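Ligand-bound model needed. zinc ion.
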Amino acid sequence: MDNFTFWSPTFFSFGKDSESQAGELVKRFGGSKVLVHFGGKSAKNSGLLDRVEKSLKEAGVDFVELGGVKPNPRSGLVYEGIELCKKENVDFILAVGGGSVIDSSKAIAAGALYEGDFWDFYDGKPVEKALPVGTVLTIAAAGSEGSGDSVITKEEGMLKRGTGSNALRPKFSILNPALTQTLPPYQTAAGISDIMAHLYERYLTNTKEVEVTDRMIEALLLTMKHEGPRVIADPDNYEARANIMWAGMMAHNNSCGVGRSQDWSSHNIEHELSALYDCAHGAGLAVTMPAVFKYVMNHDVMRFAKVAVRVWGCQMDFDHPEVTALEGIEAFRSFLISLGMPKNFEELGAKEEDIPKLVETLCRVNGNNGCIYGFTTLNEEDCTKIYQMMV
Ligand code: NZQ
Ligand code: ZN
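Prediction:
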């Protein structure tokens, strides 16, 4: 296991009606003037926004609103949010929504305390300070409620990039699984796919002797394998939604990723798809992961065979571990398809003729020395082959 430091200071309030604590929690974490940031229409339609604002009023906390965050959140609204925070002397940001709303909130939080262009942080400058952020989560997926990460798309060139800093970890996150019952099935499934991707991207490590985190990841993958079909069959199943919601947090606050190298190739390859086609991130990952895994599996075939046996119930073929590894990848792919996720470029809305463009942005604009690094090093030729495998 590698040396590590781990700081995960978020306070969690989990369970039914927990959103009624929003006002009290904002106050507890020092907020007196809040920006309530939200998405398109779901939080308004469900009455959640009204309940959260009522709780702020009851706690005597003043607030301004900024809605309109789109999935794969854009820089335009971030600039607007930063201006609003400065004009209104906002000292706390409350995200009411999914990963997109939370990531947009984090970007505004960093930009509000910075004189330059907030995009500098998505260009590699470390975030050292940010306004405090709290979240009321409405979809189990990105794990942004417990992570220090934020992913934003710059409209100019549709560049989708992330930044990460402990300064961006939420002060508190309110997780009420019942709020996710209004999700369309496709979004529920995309969330499941993303959560499992966060687990797989950590499982694919080159660090030896990491049994504790291997076993934690396997346990969470098994939970998703059990609860995913239950929630798709019965969207009102509170207990299944509760298990998925907490698994989504644990999959990405990095408790399963400490002390080990991680992959993130699938995420990098997918981000080009959601940037260009505006598809759901988890749906893009469902198409990307099986292709990446098949392409890189011989780098450490026993690791793929291990997850195949321990999670997907495959029989270990000691003479041909690559057969077991491949069976595990196919089982995972079939699982995602059974939840309603797309299986290829066409179903995702992607186009084969765009592959050179996808590869150029992935490797030359967003990559390092023309490559992406993780479990293996992938150059332009590798990435081209991987995208072709998804067609
Ligand atoms: O805008 P509204 O109307 O709220 O609709 C949203 C949106 O259309 C809807 N939705 C959310 N909660 C709902 C609901 N509809 C009905 N009922 C509810 N309770 O669902 C749609 C998707 O929401 P979004 O926030 O985009 O989903 P998600 O949480 O999957 O976030 C995706 C973004 O997170 C980034 C992705 O790249 C993508 O931009 N990621 C962020 C990470 C992080 N910060 O740590 C890590 C991830 O790997 C990921 O890259
Ligand atoms: Zn993700």
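Residues 211-233 form the longest helix (23 residues).
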